[in-house]
Structures are given as structure tokens and as C-alpha cells.
Amino acid sequence: QSALTQPASVSGSPGQSITISCTGTSSDVGSYNLVSWYQQHPGKAPKLMIYEGSKRPSGVSNRFSGSKSGNTASLTISGLQAEDEADYYCCSYAGSSTLWVFGGGTKLTVL
Amino acid sequence: EVQLVESGGGLVKPGGSLRLSCAASGFTFSSYSMNWVRQAPGKGLEWVSSISSSSSYIYYADSVKGRFTISRDNAKNSLYLQMNSLRAEDTAVYYCARSSGGSGSHFDYWGQGTLVTVSS
To answer: What confidence category does residue A97 fall into, taking pLDDT thresholds of 50, 70 and 90?
Structure first.
């Protein structure tokens, strides 16, 4: 099972919106509404930001939103803030053999 | 407050073994599936293994199948990862992560990780 495909980096200015894509296959992203997104600051543990494609955990800012179309999931961050600068990873359920597959990660730079 | 604290990492020679532990608190450990996820230095996250709440279902990534064994002790609120035949490519920070309740569709809490270095 290959990793999901994410852009290596994205950037935006404070206040702007950015979108990070996560492309899988019909065996993972395309087959299940079980994509989650994690934020990771340097030296820290990942933090759940979005689950089941578009749901936000309690405590996560509504500036973060998720969506899916076909084999591609997306994370959108609106009203960029300096604290959003981090690495972001998508993850999808991939069936009863492989179970979970992550994307390669995207480094978000807030200019 | 949910807490997951990993321990047991360290330096080990290729071919050696190591046992990681994850101590859980702040929730009913026996009701949740648990997972190990690793991150090689400067690299992305990689799912390693999962175990259901009663240990009935166990899954491994192909990269560790046959070498790693996941287990849990619900009486001790602890998760384990026995790692044998270690290779240089197993060098990583290993995170313990809880599967969400219900559908278990995501990892809702993570520990701070423990570093495993495989080198001669």
C-alpha cells in the first residue's frame, strides 16, 4: 500500500486561505469516508484537526475544514495565522489488511 | 485528562530487540483500540500496528509483519510493542495513539513518543 500523495509544501500570508490536497486511490480515500488530518509542530506529537473527512473535534478552530471528492481529500485553512505554521498529514482507512495509510506530509509556511 | 506516555526506546544494534510500553490514563483503557505509529527522522508518519480493545483483532504494516508484536494488558492500562530483528530503517520516534470511540475512525489522542535508534 503506497502512501497518500500530498504536496511537499504550501505557503500563504496571514489572513489568507490555503488548501492542502491528499490524493489516494479507490482502495482508500475513494472507498471510505474515513480521512483524518493531523497537525504537527516541530518536536511535538501530532494533533487531530479533522476526522471522517469534514468533522472538527471539540477545541479545533472553525478556520479548519475538510472535504473530499473522489480519490482526493482536502484540508482548507482560512484566515491563516502564524501559529498554523506546521506540518500537516492526512490519513485514510485502507481496508482490513493495511488498515491505515498516511500521506507524506505538507509543510505549511505562513509568510 | 487523557494521557499516553511511551517508554522503552533507546539505542539497539541491528538484529537486536526492544520492547516499547505505553502507559494510559484518564480514560477507560479497556474500551478502546490502540495503535503504534512511527516517524523516521525528518520523515512522515507511518502506521505500524493496531490492537482492538480485547486483543481479538491485531493488524500490522507489511514493513514490520513477522518482526513486531503488539499486545496490551488492560489490567495495567498498558500497551506494548515487542520489536525483534530490528533494522536501521526501523529508526524512528514511536508514538502510541488511541483510536476514537465508536467507529475508531481516527487517532484522537497521541503520546509524546519514544525514540528508537537502530545502529551499530
So the answer is: confident
- B37 neighbors B106 (Cβ within 8 angstroms): no
Best mutation target among B33, B45, B49, B58 (most A Cβ atoms within 10 Å) is B45
pLDDT at A96: 82
pLDDT at B62: 94
Please answer yes or no on whether A57 and B112 come within 8 Å at the CB atom. no
Note the pLDDT tens digit of each residue in B47-58: 999 999 999 999
Q: Which of A29, A93, A100 to mutate to test the interface with B (most CBs of B within 10 A)?
A: A100
Cα diameter, chain B: 44
CB pair distance less than 8 Å for B106 and A34: yes
- Cα B70 to Cα B38: distance, rounded to the nearest angstrom: 14
- Give pLDDT, residue A1: 62
Q: What is the CA radius of gyration of chain A?
A: 13
- Residue A73 and residue B50: Cα distance in Å, rounded? 24
The parts of chain B modelled with pLDDT lower than 50 are none
- CB of B53 within 8 Å of a chain A CB? The answer is no
